[in-house]
Amino acid sequence: MKRLVMATLLMAVALSGAMPAADDSGPLEEGVITEVSGEAAVLNSRGRSRPAKPGEVVRGGEIIETQADGRVKITLVDRSLLEVRPNSRVQINDSRLNPRGVSSVLVYVGWIWAKVTARTVADYAFEVEAATAVAGVRGTELLVAVAEDGSTRVGVREGRAVMENEAGSLRLGRDETGEAGYERAPEATGSYSEQAEFWLTWLGQHHLALFSDLEVFVIRMVAAVLDARANLIERDREFREAYEGFEEQHPVAEKPAAEPEEEPAAEPATEDKKDQRERAEAATEVHQLYRKARQAQKEAHRMESNYYLAEQARSAVARSPEKFSPSQVQAVNRSLAQAKDIPQIQQQSRLALNGYAAVLETQVSRYRLASSLGRLPPLERNLQIQQILKQIPGAMPPMPPPQSMPKPVMPPMPRPRMP
């Protein structure tokens, strides 16, 4: 309980607190880059950059950045398609914190096109996150844009989507478009359009809006950062408290020091029913743990995306200080001074979320919950990645020649005794 109290007092301690030991292989392979044009890069979780290339596998937490002439197409594990358009920064999220392992993305700024595989379960929709809204989509072809002032636009060509933020929600159907912003609930804004000018004009208008009222927007961005930070502390506390309760209810049986005396076997049917009941209870509780973990992940992403926008605004001021009044410069710097601990908190939150994923995977394996949760088994997931790679010329490593393949060795068959 002491750890839980500290979690509400000090963010760094909360998010770096010890989690139960678990095997952790790190973020999963979420998709494959299939096409690249222009200048584009992939940033890993440590911020190291590499050129985006066809056949490149993208893991959860990695970021795609495109320049003015850059485009990157990605096929995700579930065969959903994603295209990152020019002047964009998009993160492929770690799907381990979704109960079904469904992919999601975080758009910091710029625009994307996506064609999402149909989903039949509403709770597990593919999601597009942004600074001021989240769009949950199912069986949808859509465009999403995020402007430098944090405004979000979602256009649905086919299927349906739900835009939501703290101020409200909006359901979108075929050929509909909606927008949201700071302190502004999502609202319908007209028909869908695929024309690039429709989206680029909107992004340009909001670029001008940002710099015409810079200090106000930065204040809103930082306020969103601080709100998300507070929520993240609370979500972290809730998850840890719930996980401790789960461990108390489902302790791991300790191995006996010595071999116990043989006892009469229990009734198999009774044992089976007991195991089934325990697994059903565990499945319900693990599902709730996943919900709490995903909520924490969303708050971490909201904090990161708003902080990124605020820092970009400050960088613009630093590059061209002559374009801004001294009062504007002071207001921007004063606002961001309130969030000076965010880079450290971001690092700690990533460690904590990785810990959540590790312990949840341990329980999924312990109770054999993958099929009941609808998660893709690791082997099948790997096969999906391999199938995508096979469709990209030169992406698959050559198979070794037949003579170099090891010859399978069969154990000798036992000879039956002759009477």
Q: What is the CATH top level name of the domain at 28-199?
A: Mainly Beta
Structural class: alpha+beta
How much is the radius of gyration in Å?
25 Å
Query: CATH fold name of the domain at 28-199, please?
Result: Jelly Rolls
Q: What assembly state would you assign to the polypeptide chains in this entry?
A: single chain
Overall mean confidence score, pLDDT: 86
Count of beta strands: 15
What fraction of the residues are assigned to beta strands by DSSP?
Answer: 15-25%
Helix/strand order, N-terminal first: HHEEEEEEEEEEEEEEEHHHHHHH
Which ranges are low-confidence, i.e. pLDDT below 50, for 5 or more consecutive residues?
A: 1-18, 20-24, 398-419
Task: Using the alpha-carbon principal axes, give the shape.
Answer: globular
Q: What's the story with the biggest beta sheet?
A: 15 strands, mixed
Distance between the termini: 70 Å
What is the level-2 CATH architecture name of the domain at 28-199?
A: Sandwich
Give the helix tally. 9
Query: Helical proportion?
Result: 40-55%
